[in-house]
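REQUEST FORM: STRUCTURE PREDICTION
Request ID: SP-0412
Submitted by: Lab K.M.
Chain count: 1
Length (residues): 228
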Amino acid sequence: MQELFDFSAYARQVRKISRLLMAYGVDAAGISGGVTLLTIMVEKDLVRFRPCAEESRVVCGPGCGACCVLNVAVLFPEAVAITRFLQRRFLLDEITALQTRLEELQRKTRWLDDEERIFLREPCAFLDNLGRCLIHAVRPLLCRSITSTDAQACHDAIAMVALQEAPIVEMDLFQKKLVDTVYCEFGWALECLGLDHRPMRLSSAVLALLEDPELVALFLSGEKVPVH
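STATUS: Completed
RESULT:
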């Protein structure tokens, strides 16, 4: 199916749709709604176009979190959608506790490259005590692209990276390519609209928005958002 699927045509379609969705995003609610519609489209397209055999082999599930020690890049609208989700679903004291975890994670990982972050094995701040993702419904596109057909292989791969003997982890390559295409074209659409299209670290972007909601207006004005 992957060989038959026209990713070039799909990329053009995604760029067009992304531009339309973001063109009508005049505030945080509009941006969040646009991102939600885009991710709904992605999930529906995966069901529609992915070979059934590939879906049946994916073993990812709640509480695993093996890959949740990686640096995750987001586009600013994704961070807006996640922040809005948190503010609508969680109590103030829960958000305050989350901010503390985000600050601690940023302190530990801010200057680490991808390999160094894996060595540290510091879990994502959005995991609860049982290892479940608190933002799974609005998780970043690049989180959606990662799958595995063997949970133990994921754990072994993370544990053995330092030894340079990590096993190969089989994943749904169609899902990865489709979602990565959406992420890239979404970025292109933002650039075409004159908006900040730079990749940002998930934890840094959400923390910045929780601390300063006015960053949304800065983004919509076409300025670069000061996320570090």
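NOTES: The chain has a mean pLDDT of 91.
Reviewed by: T.R.
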